[in-house]
Amino acid sequence: MDEVRWLDEREQRAWRALMVMQDGLSEFLDRRLRTRCGLSGADYDVLAHLSEASEGRLRPFELGRLLRWEKSRLSQHLGRMEKRDLVTREPCATDQRGAVVALTERGRVLIEAAAPQHLGDVREVLVDHLSPDELETLAAIGDTVRARLAALGQASGPAASAG
Fold first, then answer.
1. Can you tell me the distance from the alpha carbon of 39 to that of 31, in angstroms, rounded to the nearest whole number?
2. Long-range Cβ pairs for the range 90-96 (8 Å, 24+)
3. Nearest 5°: phi and psi at 38?
């Protein structure tokens, strides 16, 4: 059996700082979206991807891949969003068995109102408080970790099965 390579003090500090930062950033941004716009972070992510897609439409498997969500999570969340008239599921014109997730007018209005506020929050808590070198380092770290995850087969992850 391989011996455990425990984190040294510097590695432990970096790892914990990353976890606390990630949790705090997610909590802050989610709270701001909910109080200002009535959207959860997950709602925002779905609406943002749809608003960037051609004609505000994506196949569920495409949306699931972009979000990195399991098929069941995507289906349940879209159901809740449909009840709030943020998205609709329509038959796919090119695949009789398939569906398309489409942004509703209400969904478009909400994402267009939420996006500038959300970006302002990202600037307020992160971007405007880092130097250009720190931003480059943060981007490089993200790229390195994503590449390692891809090499380990995690990049396609659970959402690859979303259909």
1. 9
2. 90/57, 92/59
3. 75, 20
Digit-coded pLDDT (tens) for 75-90: 999 999 999 999 999 9
CA distances (Å), origin 142, targets 21, 33, 93, 139: 14, 24, 38, 5
Domains and CATH numbers, the chain: 12-161 (1.10.10.10)
Q: Where are the alpha helices (DSSP H) in 38-131?
A: 41-52, 60-67, 71-83, 105-125
Indicate the pTM of the whole model: 0.84
φ, ψ (nearest 5 deg) of residue 90: -125, 155
3-state helix vs strand vs coil in the chain, percent to 5: 70, 5, 25
Q: In whole angstroms, how far apart are CA 39 and each of 32, 47, 114?
A: 9, 10, 8
Which two tokens mark 69?
């969500």
Q: For residues 96 and 25, what is the distance between their CA atoms, to the nearest angstrom?
A: 42
